[in-house]
Design a protein that fits this description.
Layout: H1 7-28, E1 32-33, E2 36-37, H2 38-59, H3 63-81, H4 85-115
Antiparallel strand pairs: 1-2
Length: 118
Amino acid sequence: MDETVDVQAMTIGVGTVIAIALLGYGATVGDSLLGADTTTLAVGAFALTFVALAVLHGAYGRRDFAAAYGVAGIGLGTVAVASSALGVLGGYLLLAVGGGYVAVATIRARDDTRTLPQ
């Protein structure tokens, strides 16, 4: 029996659970954890999720997705730690470029699999 695991979905799920746990900690226990703002940590955890996805896609040979997820992760990480409006804007720009590529390439890949002859 062949069993496959959707590593991408699992990675996103783990990153999301960690981010939500950090936000929950900040809302119920305290605003900081080990001296860092919990909201910043939550956004950083999700940025690291994108970086993990970049590494996974690189390992599977999808360099385009690896680069796009890496750019999106760097952008979200920049937004998390930015101290100026220009830094936030730059981070959002990177996030939009990387995320936009992932969205368009995913839609195209799904359309290609649907139109292939069976």
